[in-house]
Amino acid sequence: MKKILIVGYGQMREFVYESLLNSKYFDLYLLSDLEEDITAKFFVQTFKGDLADFDACKKLLSGLQIEFDYIVSFLEDRVLLASQLQTVFCFSELNVEGVNNSSVNKFLMREKLASKSYSVQTIAVDVSSLKAFTSSLEGFIFPCVVKPNRGVNSLGVYKINSQFEIPKIFNEIKIQDFPEDLDFQAEEYFGGQMYSADGFVLNSQVSEILLTRQYLGPEPQFTLETTLAGFADWRSIRDQFKDIIHDVLSNLGLNNTLFHMEFKIQNGEFKLIEVAARSAGGPILRGYDRALGVNLPLAFLSSMFNLAYKIQPQNKGVLVMHAEYAKSDFVLQKLENNSLIELLDFIPLSEIGKEVTGYPNKPDALYVVNFFAENQSDPLGDLKRVTNNILLK
Question: In the CATH hierarchy, which top-level class contains the domain 2-89?
Fold first, then answer.
């Protein structure tokens, strides 16, 4: 049994931990800063530490009588810590390479890829005051997108159509109460259909790449609402742009790591949104497993240790993963599933009797549904049928 230390918990990744445990290949350990003891769920043992302090974590692990075979995190804000600990405690040719500031910091990533045609113009912006924010954007391209330079649960991404919208977006950023050390950037806006690409790089070889198609909510929030896994032409789109995807990974120097990439296609042109040396989020990972029969974290770790699991995508259908957000402010009185299409999951997220916030402000999520489309050529049509039959008032 290989001993794997997971850095940071992440409830949305429970599918990953369960599948690794059920494979019978791995003993899982957890390094966590949570007060709750969740060892019994998936882990042999949990170690509690300050995940913001590398030296403290290093000291904690140094006192253990355990030799870990690999240290990994499936959380964007813990990937760098996991790779640093991996370098110290796992002396092998499998040490993570390329997991550095440019693979977790979006602005540094843009700087490294600035000369590439698939990248977009990017500048650092100062959000300490409205005056500083306005000055940062002076002379820049509109429309543009302003966002944090590292992951904060997909929050803080806003489109600015003109200089007249700067005060409004500044206020939106300020009410989110982001960490004080969080820097922001502005980048040239690029339209088109959005996709994610997921896989891993091991011994400088890129695994088979999987794609999802994604649909965002109304601007300026850019809230991810709908994701399709196993959609009809995912292989042809992947193959069309595979060389560019490989070029991104090569130029960032990613090796011995999972990766998650987001990009847009418009009129046949590829534009990179971002890429990180981490896995996709839990819902997308489970979507690949359901729609294509591929468990990427299990495939990555199994390939690393020459175990039996291999990536062999099978088309099981078009999986629709949708989060419904409030379209306006109201008090939620009823939430009831009357869908005529069989749902894999119906998960209410808002409490009955509570007021919810809707667009154009940061919207509250009302519920999540996951299902296989009955009409694979029109999965969004099936989604409309589902949402129209969920009683919401």
Answer: alpha beta
What is the Cα–Cα distance from 312 to 106, expressed in whole angstroms? 31
pTM of the full predicted structure?
0.90
CA distance 238 to 316: 18
Residue 133: CB atoms within 10 Å: 21
**What class, spelled out in words, does domain 191-304 have in CATH?**
alpha beta
Q: Which residues contact 9 (CB under 8 A, 6 or more apart)?
A: 30, 32, 34, 38
Q: Report the SS3 class of residue 64.
A: coil
Share of the chain above pLDDT 70, in %: 95
pLDDT digits (tens, 9 = 90+) for 225-249: 999 999 999 999 999 999 999 999 9
* CATH T-level assignment (fold) for domain 319-392: Aldehyde Oxidoreductase; domain 3 (3.90.1170)
**Helix (H), strand (E), coil (C) string for 242-263:** HHHHHHHHHHHCCECEEEEEEE
CA angle 124, 224, 105 (to 5 degrees): 30
